[in-house]
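Inverse folding, one chain.
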């Protein structure tokens, strides 16, 4: 422990949407944290979930007329964002993109610690976070950014490889879902859309948390809303001493990674991966872990090939909880934090 706290960490969630509602649930499950409130821009069906769970509801804005709209629709609104920040130790920003700079100024003015999501750029905070890559570097800092779902997924499998090998050169192709399941306004509907910025931001974003890994990426968007898939090629240094099986064993021992044989388990597609998550009773059908197809992993000489699948709505959720502990300096060891987080939200890897 970096230090002892006599009271729970008071956490606010600014933005109670796809990510925000999941982070709120995860925070609420932790015995060292207290969820003091969540924000919505205005009354909507999402407010019903907050009310049902007993989460104090606040308005994203401070204008009295906006706050009054909640009461007009029958919701108890405890105030605006400033009121929420006044009772908070750390705010988890889950608001829509392009609001980061404006929100950052509010958090700094309020004197609270803050964390953003991967939709914001690294330059906003000058720091980024994943549990396995750089928990220690984020201890007691004022603010940071939890990297995107894809960067989180890449870090989960590449960091243990780097830690063993001491160097790593990676090329990956991101086969991206077109939108979240509830987002009906995006496409493509019947096309494959290449990301024409080369390299795409996904791979190099890993270097914001583990700059020692040399990585580039390409990306295409495809008409699915279920998961992302990564096709990865990693060049290991000579004398690495690894085999395909020892790499699989390494990942089996890595938190938040699931390794399964696709053909033997009849899990050969992302649809079947997510059906498994529903079958084992995960809330919202989420899969916080990175799914690696065992029979798609092959080390040929010094070159490693593998596929992995990322559930874009949920893999970053436990990272947010660990990041809160890093910012507040309450847990210096990332593995201890991971174990605590995962036990509280019923994440388990040996399926």
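Residues assigned per position:
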């Amino acid at each position: 422990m970096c230090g002892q706290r006599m009271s729970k960490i008071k956490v606010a969630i600014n933005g109670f949407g796809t990510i925000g509602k999941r982070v709120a649930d995860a925070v609420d499950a932790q015995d060292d944290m207290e969820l003091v409130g969540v924000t919505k821009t205005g009354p909507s069906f999402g407010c019903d979930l907050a009310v049902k769970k007993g989460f104090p509801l606040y308005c994203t804005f401070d204008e009295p007329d906006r706050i009054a709209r909640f009461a007009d629709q029958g919701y108890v609104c405890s105030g605006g964002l400033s009121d929420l920040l006044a009772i908070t130790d750390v705010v988890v920003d889950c608001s829509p993109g392009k609001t980061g700079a404006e929100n950052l100024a509010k958090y700094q003015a309020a004197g609270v610690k803050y964390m953003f999501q991967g939709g914001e750029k690294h330059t906003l905070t000058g720091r980024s976070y994943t549990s396995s890559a750089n928990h220690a570097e984020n201890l007691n800092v004022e603010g940071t950014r939890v990297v995107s779902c894809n960067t989180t997924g890449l870090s989960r499998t590449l960091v243990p490889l780097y830690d063993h090998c001491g160097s790593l050169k990676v090329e990956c192709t991101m086969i991206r879902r077109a939108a979240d399941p509830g987002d009906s306004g995006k496409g493509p509907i019947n096309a494959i859309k290449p990301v024409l910025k080369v390299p795409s931001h996904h791979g190099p974003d890993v270097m914001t948390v583990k700059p020692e890994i040399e990585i580039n990426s390409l990306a295409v968007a495809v008409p699915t809303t279920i998961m992302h898939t990564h096709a990865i090629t990693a060049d290991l240094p000579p004398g690495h001493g690894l085999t395909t099986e020892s790499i699989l064993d390494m990942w089996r021992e890595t938190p938040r990674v699931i390794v399964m044989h696709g053909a033997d388990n009849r899990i050969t597609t992302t649809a079947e991966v997510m059906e498994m998550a529903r079958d084992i009773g995960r809330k919202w059908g989420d899969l916080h872990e990175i799914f690696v197809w065992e029979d798609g992993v092959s080390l040929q000489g010094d070159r490693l090939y593998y596929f992995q699948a990322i559930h874009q709505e949920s893999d970053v959720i436990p990272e947010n909880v660990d990041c809160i502990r890093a910012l507040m300096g309450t847990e210096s060891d990332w593995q201890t934090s991971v174990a605590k987080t995962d036990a509280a939200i019923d994440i388990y890897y040996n399926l």
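The first helix runs from residue 18 to 28. The first strand starts at residue 9 and ends at 14.
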